[in-house]
Amino acid sequence: MEKVFINSIGSISAQKTFDNKVFLEEITTYEDNVIPAIEPNYKDFIPPAAARRMAKGIKMGVVAAKIAMEEANLSNVDAIITGTGMGCVRDSEKFVTAILDNQEQFLTPTSFIQSTHNTVAGQIALGIGCKGYNFTYVHSSISFESALIDALMQLQTKEAENILVGGVDESGEHTNTIHKLIQHIKLEKINTNKLLQSNTEGAVFGEGANFFVLSNNKQNSCYAQILGVKTFNTLPISKLTANLEGFLKDNNLSVDDIDVLISGNNGDLNFDNYYLELTQGLFNNTQQVYYKHLSGEFNTASSFGFWLGAKILKTQHIPSEIALNSIKSKGFGTVLLYNQYRGKNHSFTLLRQC
C-alpha cells in the first residue's frame, strides 16, 4: 500500500498556533475551567461580509484549512474529511433558545442551517470549489481519528492524491453549563500549568480547529508519515497494555522503537489512570509529553495532539512546557499518540519522521 504523508498543517487553538513559522515559543497560561481559542485576524483570510455570517467554529475551521492548503501550495483537494463532536454548537443553542422564547413560532432558519455538523466541511468546499468526496464524522472523542482512518484508506489504495482532514469543535455557553453540573468540567478554576496536580474530577474544556493536508506524494513541506491509527470504543484498563503492544506489532514496531509518547492527560482524577498505566508502566523509560493544559479538552482535542506530534517530528524539538517526564531522546523518529475520554473512545496513532 502507498505511504501517507502529512504535507501541511493549520491550527487554531488556545495557543498562538496559527503561525506555522513558530512552535509554542509563547505559551498562554489560563486560570479558568473553560479556555477560549486565540483567533487570528479573520479579515486576512475571509471577506468581512462573509465572516460576519459565520459562527466561531466555522471561521476557525475555514481559516485552519486555508493555512494548511496554502502551506501545501494547493488550490484544491480531492476530498475534505472532518471530525467534530458537537458541530456548531453555538448556533444549535441559539436555535433551541429561539424555539422556547418564541413558542415555536416566527423562527428564522439561519441558526439551524449553520448548526449542522457538516457545515464546516461544506463552507470549506464552497470556498475552494471542491466538488469531491465530502464527509463529516461525529464519533464523540474519536471523531478526528475516524476522519483520519477514512483518509488513510483512500490514500493507501490510491483512490485520492491529496485529502484535507481536520478536527473542529467550538465552545458553547449553555453546553458548558450542563457539563459543569455533571462535573465533566472542573467546578473550580485551575491554573493550566498545574492541571495534572489538580486532583479533582472533570477537565478544563477548550475549543479549536486543526487541519492537515494528507497525501501519498511527499512534498518538501512534509511534517511526518502516518504509520497507523486504531480506535476502541471500550477498552478495560487491564487490557490497555496488551492492545497497545498488539497495535505496535501490527506496524512492525516495539515499545523500544517509540521515541516520544504523546499523552492526552486532562487532569481528571477519575480517568487519568489510563494514561498512568502507560506512562508509569510500558513507557516508563520513554520521553513523554502532554498537551491538554495548552488546548483544553474537547471532542477533537486529539487533533491538537496530532498537530503537536507533526511539529515535534519536523522541528526535532520539544518545548519544555509540554514535557511530562525528564527523559530526553537523542532524536525523534517515531511518535505514538494515545487519547481517551472518560474511559471510552480510545485511540492509538503512530507517526514517523518523513
Strand content: 15-25%
Radius of gyration, rounded?
19 Å
Unreliable stretches covering 5 or more consecutive residues: none
Please state the structural category.
Answer: alpha/beta
Strand order within the widest beta sheet? 4-3-5-7-1-8-12-11-9-10
Classify the helix fraction into a percent range: 25-40%
Shape: globular
CATH-level-4 superfamily name of the largest domain: Thiolase/Chalcone synthase
Q: What is the C-level CATH assignment of the largest domain?
A: Alpha Beta
How would a textbook summarize the main sheet? 10 strands, mixed
According to CATH, what is the topology of the largest domain?
Peroxisomal Thiolase, Chain A, domain 1
Oligomer: single chain
As for the number of domains, it is 2
Number of helices: 11
Summarize the helices and strands and which ones pair or pack.
Layout: E1 4-12, E2 31-32, H1 48-51, H2 56-71, E3 79-83, H3 89-101, H4 110-113, H5 119-128, E4 133-137, H6 143-156, E5 162-169, H7 173-181, E6 190-191, E7 208-215, E8 224-234, H8 237-250, E9 260-263, H9 273-282, E10 287-290, H10 292-295, H11 302-315, E11 334-341, E12 344-352
Parallel strand pairs: 3-4, 3-5, 9-10, 9-11
Antiparallel strand pairs: 1-7, 1-8, 2-6, 5-7, 8-12, 11-12
Helix pairs in contact: 2-5
Domain Beta-ketoacyl synthase-like N-terminal: 46-218
Keywords: Transferase
Protein name: Beta-ketoacyl synthase chain length factor
How would you characterize the overall build of this protein?
Helices cover 32% and strands 21% of the residues. It has 354 residues and is α/β, with parallel strands linked by helices. The protein folds into 2 domains: 212 residues, Thiolase/Chalcone synthase (Peroxisomal Thiolase, Chain A, domain 1, 3-Layer(aba) Sandwich), CATH 3.40.47.10; 128 residues, 3-Layer(aba) Sandwich (Peroxisomal Thiolase, Chain A, domain 1). It has a 10-stranded mixed beta sheet with strand order 4-3-5-7-1-8-12-11-9-10, sandwiched between helices. It has a two-stranded antiparallel ribbon with strand order 2-6. Helix 9 links the parallel strand 9 and strand 10. It is globular and about 65 Å long. The model has no long low-confidence stretch (mean pLDDT 95). This is Beta-ketoacyl synthase chain length factor. Keywords: Transferase.
